[in-house]
């Protein structure tokens, strides 16, 4: 019985540690998302006050957004790993790591040994790297 009791304590400790890590990652993701909104506001203010603003100033702010997006992508990957999920590369659905195909769109999920490129950014939204600073046509509602 003592061994089972010790296993239970170890299991409970591991779950508590995972819960703490999950909460920390969620908090960090939220901070990065809030900061991205602030940077976009800075870009808007700078452009509004001076439409002829040096493009390098605006580009630096856009680069900051892209850096924060990469951090968010890395943290989401870590969060899903802790929770036992993979993210579908096609539709971004969370899928149990035991499955090989997405239950939403049917796409093949990456294997454990296939590394996801955590430095790439998706081109389908307005946070992406590009020479264009902001395209109103690409905003999703």
Lay out the secondary structure:
Blueprint: H1 2-49, H2 55-83, E1 85-87, E2 94-96
Helix pairs in contact: 1-2
Description:
The protein is mostly helical and 141 residues long. The radius of gyration is 20 Å and the shape is elongated. The relative contact order is 0.10. Helices cover 55% and strands 4% of the residues. A two-stranded antiparallel ribbon has the order 1-2. Residues 126-141 have low confidence and may be disordered.
Task: Record keyword descriptors for this entry.
elongated; 141 residues; single chain; mainly alpha
Low-confidence stretches: 126-141
* N-to-C CA distance: 57 Å
The biggest beta sheet is recorded as:
2 strands, antiparallel
Which whole number gives the mean pLDDT? 79
| Backbone structural class | mainly alpha
Overview in brief:
By secondary structure, this protein is mainly α.
């Amino acid at each position: 019985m003592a061994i089972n009791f010790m296993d239970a304590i170890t299991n409970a400790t591991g779950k508590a540690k995972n819960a703490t890590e999950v909460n920390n990652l969620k908090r960090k993701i939220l901070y990065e998302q809030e900061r991205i909104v602030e940077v976009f506001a800075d870009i808007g203010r700078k452009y509004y006050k001076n439409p002829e603003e040096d493009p390098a100033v605006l580009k630096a702010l856009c680069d900051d957004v892209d850096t924060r997006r990469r951090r968010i992508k890395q943290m989401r990957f870590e969060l899903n790993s802790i929770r036992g999920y993979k993210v579908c590369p096609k539709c971004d659905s969370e899928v149990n790591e035991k499955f090989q195909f997405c239950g939403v769109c049917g796409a093949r999920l990456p294997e454990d040994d296939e590394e996801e490129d955590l430095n790439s950014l998706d081109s389908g939204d307005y946070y992406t790297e590009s020479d264009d600073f902001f395209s109103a046509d690409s905003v999703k509602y």
